[in-house]
Amino acid sequence: MILYDGFEDAFVCWGTRADKRVAVYDFNECVEILRKRDDMPVEEALEYMAFNVTSMYVGDSTPIFIGGEELE
């Protein structure tokens, strides 16, 4: 199972993918963590999530993200 360092406060619950237990994270909370922790503007945080986090697939243990990009 894969857990992302630094996004502990965005962890929601466990889910399943292909009969494997996976972490489920709140996407918007991850963006807020980046904004606060790394002092990123919202657009930069969204871009970081898109290119460095949610686009990564490392097999059936890859975490799932819920929520959307409705941040201002």
Verbal overview:
- This protein has 72 residues and is an alpha+beta fold.
- It has one domain.
- It is 32% helix and 24% strand.
- It contains two helices and three strands.
- The protein has helices spanning 27-37, 42-53, and strands at residues 11-17, 20-26, 64-66.
- The chain has a three-stranded mixed beta sheet with strand order 1-2-3.
- The chain is elongated and about 35 Å long.
- The N and C termini lie far apart (32 Å).
How would you summarize this macromolecular structure in one to three sentences?
The chain has 72 residues and is of the alpha+beta class.
Secondary-structure map:
Blueprint: E1 11-17, E2 20-26, H1 27-37, H2 42-53, E3 64-66
Helix pairs in contact: 1-2
The count of β-strands is 3
Domain count: the total is 1
Strand arrangement, major sheet: 1-2-3
Give the overall form: elongated
What proportion of the residues is helical, as a percent range? 25-40%
Count of helical regions? 2
Please outline the major beta sheet: 3 strands, mixed
End-to-end separation? 32 Å
> What ranges have pLDDT less than 50 throughout 5 or more consecutive residues?
none
**Alpha-beta content class:** alpha+beta
Mean pLDDT: 92
Strand content: 15-25%
Question: What key phrases describe this protein's structure?
Answer:
3-stranded mixed beta sheet, 3 strands
